[in-house]
Amino acid sequence: MKTLTKKELLPIPILILISGAMFSSHFGVGDLIFPPILGRNSGTNWFTASIGYALINSIGVWLAYLACAQQNQSLSGIATQTLGNFFGKIYTAIPVLITVFFILPRVASATHEMAVLPLFPSVPLWVSLAIFFLLSFYIAFTRATVMDKLGRFLAPALIVFVVIMVIKGVASPLSTPAVSGSETPLKDGMLNAYNTMNAIAALLFGGWILHELKIRNISGARDRGINLNIIGISTALLLSITSTALVYLGKSSGPAFMDASIGVLSTEIAKGLLGQAGLIGFAIIMALSCLSTSAAISSMAGDMFAEMSREKLQYRWIVITATLAGFIIGLVGLSKIVKYTIPWLVLLYPSIIVIIITALYSKFDKIRIAVIAGVIAALIFGLGDMLNFYGITDNPISNFSASCPFGSQGIGWIIPTFIVIAFIWLLTQVFPQLNQQNGKQA
């Protein structure tokens, strides 16, 4: 086994800095509000729920980074390699635009409702959003310094506050868990994790990190892959530890606030455990976590659209556009933004998971047509889940998915989708010209 040289591996402090930056980029409002309410609702089944959450939110993140490292490409590169230049760019643009149009305003609105209003109830929404996006713009505007700003200042503050709150919650919980918790904790954990968008974000952030490694003079494909793997594992571990701890807090202290809605519960737990200092600390951490996510998304969008347009769309203009879009849409309010986001997430998530898993295969270009079939099948199943959110529950797609293995856990699409992939792959072994034709089109 070859020993890593200094050229191949970034210095440990830099790896820690970038890993911290990525953790703070992923750890946004979703990771603060969904785990506690998941823990409260799961009761004594909290650990199973936390596993479901980690499968999507942490393992999904690690696999997404691993896929980018394996292919040494961003989502844009993987998608265009699979679906062809035109459809690949469209497929890539959709999740990027979702993060810009849904997640940016969501984290900004959450900062106002959960961090500003509890302390300064007279501050109007537009003022909070204006200050928030000015700070986000400042962090993201200069590409070369984004990681340093996120990793040096925001990540340590997030970790310290979570550690303090967890220690207090373990030492003196506010209540006892509900004995009759959710009957489908694994499914609930996975569905809550969908809302964070972290697995999708990781596939987008993977390309962002690859660009960062180029900036830091890590030029070889193998060298970038090694560093990205280390960063991905570290980020996933931090997300898993914090989410499990927050699910536990929801289990142990959440029942003291049974009427608290999503978001409000997290605030109540922090205040109940640490008093007024907890309320202030939670407000600060909420603002910092949302700010780091916003800056990372703006910077990632700048990188991604610059890459897809071959620099015709410039990084800084994309950051400016994303900032303005987040500010304008953020005026709608948090609850409405969350409502609009969920259907699009369940539509895309299955196909994103297909791309992540298949991209782990080193000879990815040999299975492109099978991956295309899998992506289409996953999108069809995602459409069924999307229809469910719009009240069309008795549709043939959802009914079929529910009848499949793991259907009761909300992941009935997995087995039939990978059967489709396997069948098409076998077909290409019999008719190898199919893959060759697909390669020419791509």
Short description:
Helix content is 77%, strand content 0%. It has 17 helices and no strands.
- Here the CATH topology of the largest domain equals Amino acid/polyamine transporter I
Beta percentage is: under 5%
Choose one word for the global shape: globular
Class by SSE composition: mainly alpha
Gyration radius, rounded = 21 Å
- Mean pLDDT across the residues is 84
Number of helices: 17
**SSE ordering:** HHHHHHHHHHHHHHHHH
- CATH architecture verdict of the largest domain: Up-down Bundle
CATH fourth-tier homologous superfamily of the largest domain: Amino acid/polyamine transporter I
Helix content: over 70%
Unreliable stretches (pLDDT < 50, length at least 5) are none
- Main sheet summary: none
What secondary-structure arrangement, pairings included, does this model have?
Blueprint: H1 12-26, H2 29-42, H3 46-71, H4 75-83, H5 85-116, H6 125-141, H7 146-171, H8 185-194, H9 198-215, H10 221-253, H11 264-308, H12 315-330, H13 334-358, H14 368-389, H15 396-403, H16 414-430, H17 433-441
Helix pairs in contact: 1-7, 1-10, 1-11, 2-3, 2-8, 2-10, 2-11, 3-8, 3-9, 3-10, 3-13, 4-5, 5-6, 5-11, 5-12, 5-13, 6-11, 6-12, 7-10, 7-11, 9-10, 9-11, 11-12, 13-14, 14-15, 14-16
